[in-house]
Amino acid sequence: MAEIIGRDVGMSAKVLHLVNSAFFGLAQVVTSLQSAAAFLGMETIKNLALASETFRVFAPDSRIPQSDYESIQRHAHRAAVIAGKLPVDPKARDVTVISALLHDIGRLILASKMPDKFCAALSLAKERGCENFEAEEELLGVSHAEIGAYLLGLWGFPNLAVEAIAHHHRPTRIPHSGFDSSVAVYVAGLLAYELNAHPQDSTGSEIKEADRACLEKLGILPRLSEFRELALKSEN
């Protein structure tokens, strides 16, 4: 796998950049794909390569402002870094990070392949004061979460990742075994947004009631301050 990835200079550079980023927090710099494979395993390297290619393939339509695309990417990277710090099972940590990195890939798919619907959903969300995924559900019958998960499932991503991405806005739709990957991706996405929108809100008081209710149903609302501290430390 390392040899195959190495044939594409751009992809090789991207994979090495991701491996050495805060996502994985390795103690030393990884300078070769072979070393990356030794540290992370070929399954994770494969998923990193696919993640890199996914962002490249789904560049938004020219009618979509470049700032929107960059905002989606920044949010994805921030969520991935936070996910890597949350108390998920170490065995599921890598797939959780990849899931967080790609949790909004459905938005890029819409921006690339259905730009009119993407813009319409943004307008509807602004008009109604609702979330983008709720506007997408009204217009399309599904949201970017299910769209992204479906594609990644076809591409052979791990089932844990597909499930986490499909339910990252509505994690209570499925049963959970403790603080699993699906819960972690939801929390990471929520905190990535909140820390950007309300950086001075140390207690999480600005979190929307719907998310507060979701956290309570998942049984983790009392741990919100703990998760927020971990998220803040991930940015240092």
Provide structural commentary.
The chain has two domains: 41 residues, no CATH class; 176 residues, Hypothetical protein af1432 (Orthogonal Bundle). 65% of the residues lie in helices and 0% in strands. The protein contains 14 helices and no strands. Helix 4 runs parallel beside helix 6, helix 6 crosses helix 11 and helix 11 packs across helix 12.
Compact overview of the structure:
By secondary structure, this protein is mainly α. It is 65% helix and 0% strand. The protein contains 14 helices and no strands.
Q: Roughly how many Å apart are the termini?
A: 33 Å
Shape from CA axes? globular
Biggest sheet details: none
Q: What portion of the residues fall into strands of 2 or more residues?
A: under 5%
**CATH H-level homologous superfamily name of the largest domain:** Hypothetical protein af1432
Helix share, percent: 55-70%
Structural class per helix/strand content? Answer: mainly alpha
Low-confidence sequence ranges: none
Number of helices: 14
